Known about the structure:
The chain is mostly helical and 435 residues long.
Amino acid sequence: MPAEMKNRDHQILQIALPAIVTNITVPLLGLVDTAIVGHMGSAVYIGAIAVGSMIFNLVYWLFGFLRMGTSGTTAQARGRRDMDGAGRILVSSTGLAAAVALLILLLQWPLYMLMTWLIAPTADVRPWVGVYFRIVVWGAPATLLLYALSGWFIGMQNTRTPMVVSILQNVVNIIASLLLVYGAGLGVEGVAFGTVIAQYAGLLTAVVLWRHHYARHFPSILSRSRTPAPSSRTPILPLSLNTDIFLRTLCLVAVNLYFTSAGARQGATILAVNTLLMQLYLLFSYVMDGFAYAGEALGGRYWGAGDMTAYRDVVRRLFGWGALMTLLFTAVYVVGGTPFLQLLTDEPTVVDASRDYVWWAYLIPAAGVAAFIWDGLYIGTTQTRGMLLSSAVAALVFFVSATITISIMGNHGLWLSMILYLLARGVIQSLLAMS
């Protein structure tokens, strides 16, 4: 048994570590764009890229079911050794991704108007947001198809390919943007075109790697005359699964938007403080998402195979790793939280104000660890209704708490509500799992 458990830890780390690297590199696409326009001589360009990136992050986040739904169903098919079913899932998910991308392209103008109305950029920034949006929106097919492919790779317990794709995207984005901005003098347009080029380079790389590693196992996908045979045992991205994940994502978006807007209403200093503290939350999430991906792949595999002993062992091992990461990050935040914030800004008022609130960041790992792990396991086992229920109830806890406490405690009340929200998600998912 000890040797088997050690092997299970090895399986978890094989999936989690490449996923963590991928998660860390993903934000670099936006950071590279910001760094390039930051040297173009006007803050307007920085604001345009920031707003434009936010628009696409919000839109694509809503369609995260293309990845999550694909990974869980694929992992279960793999666990049943149903490779034909895994092939059908890939065809189904990429087809759905293409359809969603086409819809975005067709509705790009009303989508742009809605998002700029919600975010409300200033008059000098808005025209450049439009320039960025009208170019980058054509990257939607590449981005959403990559969502589906990445989910399928994760379900097949392959997180190295998404890591390679992500790293290559960043390299291409840096080279293309620099050449177009400083070589061709295209400004914001150059940054936008660089982003789109990187997105399609990532998609091309993913397809090439799929053909290299999997084409011989799924010849029917490459044949126009044959389609994978039906299998009643393999769910092909059922509507209820996608709907559950979509609605769950709406709950998360609503909480995050309210958190940002409630901080903004307290003034620029508090908004800056909350933005900086959320970077500590993001750092923890990048690592824990890697272990969540392991839960999707391994949990889904053993669940699909009907091996409940192995599944429960995966759950125990994941929570063991979660406990270790919680202790590690809490210690790092207590010791280095304030110095880290000072690396991000040298604005004296923001640094001083952050000292009053930084201790809330110390609670993030303990409050959020269970939610991250259960999210991965619920996705892997396609128990998305429970994930939706926990997110909806937790969001209700957040909004009720924020309504009551912000007027009494100010920004401390907002952070208390966020911590309660994270705790509620994990607690409710744990109770549902035990029921």
